[in-house]
Amino acid sequence: MVPPLIVVAVRLLADRLPPSVAAVIVAWSAAAVGAASMTNLGVFALKAIAEVPAVGRTFGWSSPVVAADTEYVSWAPWLSAVLFVIGVVSVARRWRRHRRALDLGHVVPPADGPLVVLPDQSAQAFAVPGHPGHVVVTTGMRRLLTDRQFDALLAHEHAHLAAGHHRLVRLAELAAATHPALWWVARHVDYLVERAADEQAAIEVGSRRTVAHAIGVAALAATGRQDVPQSLHVAAAGGVVPRRVAELLHPHPPVRSRALRALPVSLAVASLLWTGEAVWDLFELLNAARLGR
């Protein structure tokens, strides 16, 4: 039940907190809930294995005693085992996809500085994390922007690098791979890191309107090439660009409430505590099964 509840919590608070704060809280809370969800499935999967008579004989416990614990829902441990395997495969695939996206961003070696300008007619701009990271901009994108808009675009991308937003996106995506309800949370983390970079860029260039115009131009001009990792692209969240522009032009003051910040964290902590209890219950069951032989 916790993953659906955290979706509700994100809806309540994500737009009421500063985006840089909300992104961190939501991403880490989702990761904790996702880890707890997988651990719970793993516990039930181990129980299913423990019900096998051959396993009981090998480890010295009574498999009928283990099976009797869920005799009215005997299918639950085996369904959990299937879901656990599906979750592990999904997380592994998402991890590999993220690594490939970062590798694609490194196909262009950095120049003597944090900016790489590619001679390309398409309009592209994206940040490439690393030590140090750098920003890649095509000549097609540069021609579309005024000097002030170009400064805003660079400030936006450097804000991603400075805050390590790719790590928050990766956390949220891995969490989404563990439970379908967390998919929307991951998409909202994408939005929040873009909003956080927008706000930082506005501070650096001193004009929210300039940043809004730069975002609009970049989004309209982006061609959606398949060889550019969308998770690194300035216009990756194309569906929420109008919303980002609106927040820049007509900002809403954030609500600085500790209770709001604590809501998703509390759900995550409750999920972890519940998981700890499930692990303990499994150990107690196996000890009782040894005594019941």
Describe, in plain words, how this protein is organized in 3D:
With 293 residues, the protein is mainly alpha-helical. The protein has a 3-stranded mixed sheet. It has helices at 2-13, 19-50, 53-59, 63-68, 75-105, 139-144, 147-163, 165-178, 183-205, 208-221, 241-249, 258-291; strands spanning 115-118, 125-128, 134-138. Residues 233-238 have low confidence and may be disordered. The chain contains 12 helices and 3 strands, in the order H-H-H-H-H-E-E-E-H-H-H-H-H-H-H.
Oligomer type: single chain
Largest sheet: 3 strands, mixed
Alpha carbon gyration radius: 24 Å
Spatial order of the strands in the main sheet? 1-3-2
Please count the beta strands (DSSP E, at least 2 residues each).
3
Give the helix tally: 12
Beta-strand content bin: under 5%
Report low-confidence residues grouped into runs of 5 or more.
233-238
Q: Supply the helix-strand structural class.
A: mainly alpha
Can you summarize this structure?
The protein is mostly helical. It has twelve helices and three strands.
Comma- or semicolon-separated keywords:
293 residues; mainly alpha; three-stranded mixed sheet; 12 helices; 3 strands; 4% strand; elongated
